[in-house]
Automatic annotation (TrEMBL):
Protein name as it appears in the record: ABC transporter permease
Chain segments annotated as coiled-coil in the UniProt record: none
Subcellular localization: Cell membrane
Domain ABC transmembrane type-1: 92-292
Membrane topology, as annotated: Multi-pass membrane protein
Source organism: Thermohalobaculum xanthum
Family that this chain belongs to: Belongs to the binding-protein-dependent transport system permease family.
A GO biological process held by the record: transmembrane transport
Length: 304
């Protein structure tokens, strides 16, 4: 009980409660995340089961009875008669899974590289940071496309659709580790000269123990902020790659794939096939970004 009271009265909780935009963003994130997680229970149809699709329901406008079957769909249907509301819920699951997994991969690679570079220094620091600098000269989306193309080329043709999601995660993760590495390196350069690190050296602690048990806990605040903002960027990157046709396969469409499908019918009058997935992606990315901005300000008193 006392722990809950202290959490409620903390500076972080106070900052959150007195920021209406942050509260609204958190509410939208909870709603969208819950919709994606509970999609099998919420979705009225199974959009990716061919046995449940009826081509006669194709191009049904939102909240309008279909001319042939008489069925009504909240957000309409696409060219295959797939319920757009159900497709968006399932598409969000893939987008969020790719986003979380890619950020986790980038976080692990970047934190390890930043700790090693900042603590070891010397030629190790030089090599890691020059690799990061070279990668920063290219847009991350181009790096992700390059990695995706190479990885897909190495994948056997009969397994490409099954491995497409994992290849997408690796592509985005390898293109986003640099930000984590640079921030962690900078924080490690400061922490390695602190008294507690000097004390750990004097008692004979190994380098790995000092880095991961002593330095790492003191550099997690900026990493948490970058990870939150990076989640929104990873979701957008996944949508961009899928929109360009090099992301999630049509058999497992994400929000980006749904937007790509809808773009082909925008000028023929079926606007809802593009509009609703695009709005969902916009609200999801914006809400996560707003939470990341609030977290950055709340954890850094100099920005208040």
């Amino acid at each position: 009980m006392n722990a809950m009271r202290r959490a409620w009265e903390s500076d972080l909780s106070y900052s959150f409660r007195h920021s209406p935009i942050t509260v609204l963003a958190a509410f939208m994130v909870i709603v969208l995340f819950a919709g994606a997680i509970l999609a099998p229970l919420i979705a009225p149809y199974s959009p990716f089961d061919p046995a449940t699709l009826n081509l006669m329901n194709g191009f049904t406008p939102p909240m309008t009875p279909n001319t042939f079957t008489g069925e009504t769909f909240w957000l309409g249907t696409d060219d295959q008669g797939r319920d757009m509301f159900s497709a968006i819920l399932y598409g969000m699951r893939i987008s969020l899974f790719v986003g979380f997994a890619a950020v986790l991969l980038a976080l692990v690679l970047g934190v390890v590289a930043g700790l090693v570079a900042g603590y070891a220094g010397g030629w190790v620091d030089t090599i890691i940071m020059r690799i990061a600098d070279v990668q920063l000269t290219f847009p991350s989306i181009l790096v992700a496309m390059l990695i995706f193309g190479i990885a897909k080329g190495l994948t056997p043709p009969d397994m490409r659709d099954q491995m497409a999601i994992w290849v997408l995660i690796v592509s985005i993760g390898l293109s986003d580790w640099v930000q984590f590495a640079r921030v962690v390196r900078g924080a490690t350069l400061v922490e390695r000269n602190r008294e507690y690190v000097q004390a750990a050296r004097l008692i004979g602690r190994s380098r790995s123990a000092i880095m991961f048990r002593h330095v790492l806990p003191n550099v997690t605040s900026p990493v948490l902020v970058i990870a939150t903002i990076g989640l929104a960027l990873a979701i957008i990157a996944e949508a961009t790659l899928s929109f360009l046709g090099v992301g999630a396969p049509p058999t497992q469409p994400s929000l980006g794939t749904l937007i790509r499908i809808g773009q082909g019918y925008l000028f023929s009058g079926e606007w809802w096939i593009l509009f609703f997935p695009a709005v969902t992606l916009l609200v999801l990315a914006l809400s996560v970004n707003l939470l990341g901005d609030w977290l950055r300000e709340a954890l850094n008193p100099r920005l208040r």
